[in-house]
């Protein structure tokens, strides 16, 4: 397997792009970065799939024991909580606030309402239902933009959403912009942000243990063999913590 092993820095959007670079040149760089990230991701997924196939039963047992351990800890916490309630001057800890209260607090965050408003304003402009009777090319473009918009919205990235909102409402995204009303910097700002995000994603991928294995082991299968001791030790450790006998939680 051959990869570009250089460590990508993670600059601010556009800081590594030469001044005056055209959108076309930035898009070419983005295309190359996307290809690199996809190649890394593919090889990592293959390695992960091989590990899961080899240690399916061990992984299943670890998941079962981990779930049991969490349940036991929760029961202990509940028991201690009930015991404390019998004492004087008891106050409900913040940890036990109900989910509704936490959600309410979250929604009081100013950014939450701004993000939702920007998303709603943008989605009505590019939603596929609006382009059902349009040519396939325009309909396909609306689907692509909707997917990108939803992804940005779910990430909660306010700055990127602002840029994408401007890009869509300017008419540039769907190719309906008027010369007098179009901000020529909108698309470039978006491309620079995407370029920076890709560099960050590649840098993070290259810091993973799986990437280290596929780039340093002459035969990654040797690493898979080495995992046997890890899984055995982990299972023994969890069995002690949960105080269950061997194979009690194993699949039948």
Low-pLDDT ranges: 7-15, 178-182
Look at the structure and give the mean pLDDT: 81
Instruction: Report how far apart the termini are.
Output: 39 Å
Oligomer: single chain
Strand content: under 5%
Annotation field: number of helices: 9
Derived from helix and strand composition plus strand pairing, the structural class reads mainly alpha
Q: Quickly count the domains.
A: 1
How would you spell out the order of helices and strands?
HHHHHHHHH
* Helix coverage percent: 55-70%
Strand elements, count: 0
Radius of gyration: 25 Å
**Global shape:** extended
Major sheet characteristics: none
Provide a descriptive summary of the structure in words.
It is a single chain. By secondary structure, the protein is mainly alpha-helical. The protein has one domain. Helices cover 69% and strands 0% of the residues. It contains nine helices and no strands. It is extended and about 65 Å long. It starts with 22 loop residues before the first helix and ends in a 10-residue tail after the last helix. Mean pLDDT is 81; it is low at 7-15 and 178-182.
């Amino acid at each position: 397997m051959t990869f570009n092993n250089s460590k990508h820095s993670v600059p601010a959007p556009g800081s590594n792009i030469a001044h005056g670079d055209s959108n076309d040149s930035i898009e070419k760089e983005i295309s190359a970065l996307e290809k690199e990230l996809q190649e890394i991701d593919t090889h990592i997924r293959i390695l992960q799939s091989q590990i899961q196939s080899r240690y399916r039963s061990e992984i299943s047992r670890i998941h079962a024991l981990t779930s049991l351990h969490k349940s036991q800890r929760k029961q202990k916490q509940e028991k201690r909580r009930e015991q404390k309630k019998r004492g004087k001057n008891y106050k409900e800890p913040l940890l036990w606030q109900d989910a509704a209260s936490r959600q309410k607090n979250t929604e009081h965050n100013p950014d939450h309402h701004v993000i939702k408003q920007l998303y709603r304003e943008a989605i009505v402009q590019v939603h596929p239902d609006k382009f059902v009777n349009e040519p396939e090319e325009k309909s396909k473009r609306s689907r692509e933009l909707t997917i990108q918009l939803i992804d940005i919205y779910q990430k909660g990235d306010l700055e990127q959403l602002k840029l994408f909102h401007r890009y869509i409402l300017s008419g540039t995204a769907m190719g309906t912009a008027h010369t007098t009303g179009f901000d020529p910097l909108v698309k470039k700002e978006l491309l620079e942000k995407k370029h920076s995000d890709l560099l960050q994603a590649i840098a993070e991928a290259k810091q993973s243990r799986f990437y280290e294995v596929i780039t340093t082991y002459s035969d990654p299968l040797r690493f898979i063999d080495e995992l046997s001791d890890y899984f055995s030790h982990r299972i023994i450790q969890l069995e002690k913590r949960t105080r269950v006998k061997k194979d009690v939680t194993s699949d039948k």
